[in-house]
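Quality-control log, excerpt.
Job 1 of 2 completed; input and output follow.
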Amino acid sequence: MTNNPRQTDRLSTARAQAMSGMRVTLIGLLVSALLAAVKGITAVVGNSYALLADAVESALDIASGLIVWGGLRIARSPPDANHPYGHGKAEPLAAMLVAIILATAAAGIAIESVREIQAPSRSPAGFTLIVLVAVIVTKELMFRYLWAAGRRIHSTAVMTDAWHHRSDALTSVAAFVGIAVAWIGGPAYAAADAWAALFASAVIAYNAVRLFRPALAEVMDAAPDAGLVRQIVDAAIQVEGVDGLDRCTVRKTGLSYVADLHIIVDGAISVRAGHAIAHRVADRIRRTEPQVTDVMVHVEPDDPDRLARRMVNEPRGPRNHQDGGTRRD
């Protein structure tokens, strides 16, 4: 049985979350555009390859921000005939694309860094260090702002974009060190600027892998945090009339979660009574865990074998028939 009361309210909540994500992403875009311009001009005037690589990374922030913004815009669209389960997968797909862009940028910066190390140019100007201090502070603040917003609305794409800003801050730190060494050491240490850019490419590549994995897991409907499953199970078994759970699976879709439960009830009650219990279970779960927007409840009778394997306080994954697993009657 599928329970969908207050569907309009749930869709409105999801759209509001998407709009919030779009707003913070747009702010990140504007900041990235300003910093990319400042770093690019300073790099050319100040003769710093590390800062130029950092400017390229900031420019990629703009591209990734646009992708995240577009993914959230699609994800907030309501279900339609071709997408009856909504468009939530657009959000982790956007996160995956951002991670791929990061990896590509890392490869390009690494190649150019090696070339610069082999044939270093003159040392960078000292005023580039002042610019980098301002950049590092700004980017770290943007990371904290976007990360908090992403956690609040449960958006993988926004949190991925936040880490993009953190990686940009780290590349700026590397650029600062490299420029400082090259500036203080003179021509003999001119290659330090390029070594800093090479280190920055490694940081970017690491973050690309780190961000790609959770987005891929979400697209593949991987199980969420065990704590969320436990809370859903606890909420369900507290409903009067529920003798236990035979199954509980949860997956993330876009900015929210979908739960699928098999509850065990007295086999002698009427279909209407079982239906009412299922509704109460779905309502309680949504009240307890607001991020769970859809709850599907299947009602099963209290046969001895079901009661023997029921989930009480310890959530378990679905099992097969060979190990005494869940049946779908």
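Job 2 of 2 completed; input and output follow.
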Amino acid sequence: MVEDVARSMLPLWLGKHVGLKVDSLDRAFFQVGDKVLEVDLYGEALDSTGSKLVIIGEVKSRIHGVDIKTFHEKAANLASTLGEGRRALLVVSGLYAHPTAIVEAERRGMILVTPYNTLWAKVTREHATQKRII
């Protein structure tokens, strides 16, 4: 259920707070070497200049620092499948973020969206769209 809420809420949230046009976010599977990587949220977006970027997201009810680290490592492995020069924005969404998750997400340049934490409020449109995450 948390994933369903994130899939319907995040495209609107990213539009309002980050200035991205996101049509939809879906679960996706990628073959990377001999492994299959699954991501909870995947979709394409347009920034304010019309440039394309990829949204890659993870959804968890309770998010801890180790979850941020693990997802970032998975997303880095996934980068090889995106193609040369494609920008990706990493988003983690959930109901609760432990303080270690907030620190880790900020350190890694990821967007963290929860109903009760404010890391997302610190993210500006410029920060989110100009950082090349992976």
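Post-run check on job 2. The beta strands are 21-22, 26-32, 35-46, 52-63, 88-97, 111-113.
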